Amino acid sequence: MSTALESPTALNLPPVDPLPAETQRYFEICTEKLGFVPNVLKAHAFSIEKLNAFTGLYNELMLADSNLSKLEREMIAVVVSAQNRCFYCLVAHGQAVRALSGDPTLGEILVMNYKVAPLTDKQRHMLDFSVKLTKSSSDIEEADRELLRGAGFSDADIWDIVNVAAFFNMTNCVASGTQMQPNPEYHGQNR
Predict the structure, then answer these.
(1) Less Cβ around it within 10 Å: N or C end of the chain?
(2) Given CA atoms 33, 39, 45, 47 in this order, what sign does their dihedral have?
(3) pTM of whole model > 0.90?
């Protein structure tokens, strides 16, 4: 199987060639599960250490055990990315919201105005906090955490909300700063 990887960014950073066997296998698993290798992984493939650091943190925050559902974590990703106008993450994580929710419009609603989305009060508090953290992290105070606790989130849940929102603020900057392009396949999935 050929793995010719073109840079999905505006930077000239060719992937390691050949890819280490473990990385090659990871990309093959992506292709088996998704039908393609996400461009964010291709973008990091110029440095296996950076790729491994990125995937390790992503997998821990987005896929590991948490009281936040995978859908809720993806909702945070989309709402944060909407604030930052990150094209890559809006496309990729909007698709994940569609897939996990079974709702072909929820991702777009979250992109355009999450406040009109059909959410639980608990989810709305989670997203309001994530937006405030994104817009003005230094303005977060105990009253904001108390609102989350009052909505039913534990301190460990708040940790997860903060870390997911912060991760996407960082990845939004990387994606926008490098002009990372989303895989075209995302656009038509789960419609």
Answers:
(1) N
(2) negative
(3) yes
